Amino acid sequence: MITNYKNTIFLPKTDFPMRGGLPKLETKILAWWKQIKLDQLICELRKNCESFILHDGPPYANGDLHMGHALNKILKDLANRTQHMNGKRIHYVPGWDCHGMPIEWKIEKRYRAKGIDKDTVPIVDFRRECRKFASKLINIQREKFQRLGITGDWNNYYSTMDFKAEAQIAREIGKLLMNGSLYKGEKPVMWSVIEKTALAESEVEYQNHTSITAYFRFSVIKTDNPKLENTTVVIWTTNPWTIHGNRAIAYGNTIDYVIFMPMTVANNSLAKIGEKLVVARSLLDKFKSQAKIEAINELAILKGSEISETICAHPLSGRGYEYEVPLIAADFATEDAGTGFVHIAPAHGLDDFILCTKNGLKVPKTIANDGVFYDHVPIFAGMNILKDNLKILSIMRDYGGIIAISEIQHPYPYSWRSKTPLIFRNTVQWFISMETNGLRDTALREIDNTLFVPPSSRRRLRKMVESRPDWCISRQRAWGVPIPVFTSKKTGEPLRDQAIIDRITNTFEAEGADVWFTKDCSKLLEPDYDPNDYEQVTDIADVWLDSGSTHAFVLESNEPAWADLNWPAQLYLEGSDQHRGWFHSSLLIGCSTRGRAPYKAILTHGFLNDEHGRKMSKSLNNGIDPLQVISKSGADVLRVWVVSCDFTEDLRIGPSILKHSVDHYRRLRNTLRYVLGALNGYSEAETIQPNDMPDLERWVLHRIYEIDLIIRQCTRDFNYHKMFLTIQNFCSVDLSAFYFDIRKDSLYCDTKRSKRRRAMRTVMHTLFECLTKWLAPICVFTAEEAWRSRNSGEYNSVHLQEYPVIPVEWKNETLAKKWLKIRTVRRVVTGALELERAEKRIKSSLQAAPIVYMPSNDKAAFDGLAAAEIFITSDAILNDSLGPITAYSLPEIPGIACEANLLAKGKKCERCWRILPEVVDDEPICIRCQNAIYDLVNTTE
């Protein structure tokens, strides 16, 4: 006679451990993937299927990995893997951005540390060091990206400094030159006096900055309005050094201006009693305060439209600044700040430049590339606008040109690399026109034709394109792709000849872009042109033109390894800052050379903050190293963190948030472990067809059908956060807290031949297939570990599978409504039982025999079902009447109540632990358990 009943229970059994030991496990799986060349197998698996190409926005090869890298690459991997599991052909080619100022700045710092002026180093030697530095960082980053579980063509990556890439970038410039979009022009551009180069808006960050501001006097010398005779127009500027470049004053036609006389001033005021000043009436009080004017006499009010045909003298007139300063109406003259008059320095502001050019005013050259006044600038020649700002102000004040000085804190442009303030400076540069070939209109049309995730990001990019000026693509630096253009010494016009462009770019492809600086490339003009008639452009291209051209040399490449790529890409995916960066530059290059965007969809993720919502910074020491997280918890935990956040918004990360990610991961792992344990010894012979299954199993199949629809829709929508929440809730709410809880009794105690147990195991087999494949893009290592525990074979990887095909016949809305009612009732019963357990009236729910009160239609849902089994009790009575007022209920579930203080009658079965009348002293186990033991003893497997 069996007395040790524990040995007769079919407890779950699996080698899949509760603790994953991910840091060690993942490295072993990575080694196996490398051994079987899994990335290559993934690329080759569906050669004839519809493709999904995510073009990689290149990270910059100038530093170690940070959490932003991890977020970005994991999201890209999710996009690729979900599309792959959905039956698409994927081929992910990772890439790196290698040119430009960040790397150049690193090498310059090395020279400065040795006391060497970078400008004294031969440009070829300098470029060679930049290339060497970038190559080293690419190799470091490449290995670490793979540690995140990112699938990709890591042996055939791209970089913008490859010879073929440099050649194609030059070809794109050639296309722009030939179609007339590229032109040489003179405009104010954002300029770094430290780095001595123009910067694009995408290379600029805005910081809080304290500027010294000044109010200047411009005496009226000509006017058609008698009210303005012998008056002084007052302007205000946050950049007093630009007063030397003043050529006009702007006013607003609809602004009310006041003419007044200071009558009383403070002792230290620069205002003069009796002078007639003109400012906007709405700004008078603020001006009086700034100028320390205590009392005034208002003389007249006039509209801006009455100011036309008025001319002033420069504040330094008589000291080398003898020219007329006309007053010109302009829409940008407002009453937001200052005096209502805008000082116009066309060399130092784009609006100023446009206004002066439109009105035939000359644009002066006052500031050299190092921020020093040219020698021809009267009084201030040789002074540095940044270092000598106070000295310049002092001179202006002594000459009487200043009426007031103050300070203002405001956002100001800084170089994101050197962290120094920038200026606007008029220089000769190369531009891509937004209008010549209708580039702006084409780009706006393509934005409207592109899918944006989230949709709001469309508006952001559209607004930028609507208002952007022509694109300045030239940089006065050393490391990058040169602008491969020759200009006529006689006319200054660029040489537009496709044959010459082809010679240059073919030379770049064979020898690299360095040849532009190492050889006499003017020889490429022969025999068609005389090299003596042309000058070689020495500027290099904006790094954003480099990265904006990557689609041309990757997606359209003739490289055999990339033959299955296609243009345009299905998806570009980057952080929200790339609306003004890579998304923007790629759009402009695609539209200007091919007439459309190089992408069909854009997914944007937010920035990273710490768990308190603060921006990560070195000063706060609140950064998180992704490799440290991996070494402690594993890459899968980091991947769970990514999908557990709404990554379309700014994200938070920190120790406590990562702890939640560990908890999320453990719940998923425990679900997989329970399923694997329940399938111990499972074989196809146990399979039960859905029509023969109990209602509960058919309900689970219905839920699988519903989850599958959501997974596939999330894959199409790139909504990985919803995908994860759906899987997580299914595992924790539908399975662990409900289905597994109910069916564990059947799994443990039913006879192996039990139809109910076989149905449950059949569903568990389906759950295993679904969960491992659904989780494969998220928990890439854990899903592989689980899959391999039941699927051996050298090349049997879950990542070579597809999402399971779920029969539509599993859909059963009637059954879903029925089980929704049952689960609602169960919530009340479970709450009542928990209360009894908390009050220590019962230790286990199996001691209880609750009476449950509910409406008759809810009670009907239990027809043919064992309510006690669903409630995990030994007995249960269902009553279709209102329960007593003392019965347990939940406010949100009216009409359902439970009395859980009734104990089950009988004795405890020593095998299944249910309390049943059929259990007696002579037979300590119930009839079901007796049959199970009999079957176990008398069945030979």
Core attributes:
27 helices, single chain, zinc, alpha/beta, 10-stranded mixed sheet, elongated, Isoleucyl-tRNA Synthetase, domain 2, hypothetical protein PF0899 fold, Isoleucyl-tRNA Synthetase, Domain 1, 941 residues, 33 strands, 4-stranded antiparallel sheet
Provide the structure class. Answer: alpha/beta
Give helix % range.
25-40%
CA radius of gyration? 38 Å
Which stretches are low in confidence, meaning pLDDT under 50 for 5 or more residues running? none
Percent strand equals 15-25%
**Span from first to last CA?**
21 Å
CATH homology group of the domain at 209-417: Valyl/Leucyl/Isoleucyl-tRNA synthetase, editing domain
Largest sheet: 10 strands, mixed
Could you tell me the number of beta strands?
Answer: 33
What fold name goes in the CATH topology slot of the domain at 209-417? Isoleucyl-tRNA Synthetase, domain 2
CATH class of the domain at 209-417: Alpha Beta
Annotated CATH architecture of the domain at 209-417: Alpha-Beta Complex
Oligomer: single chain
What's the rounded overall pLDDT mean?
92
Number of helices: 27
Put the structure in a nutshell:
It is an enzyme of class 6 (ligase). This is Isoleucine--tRNA ligase. The protein is of the alpha/beta class and 941 residues long.
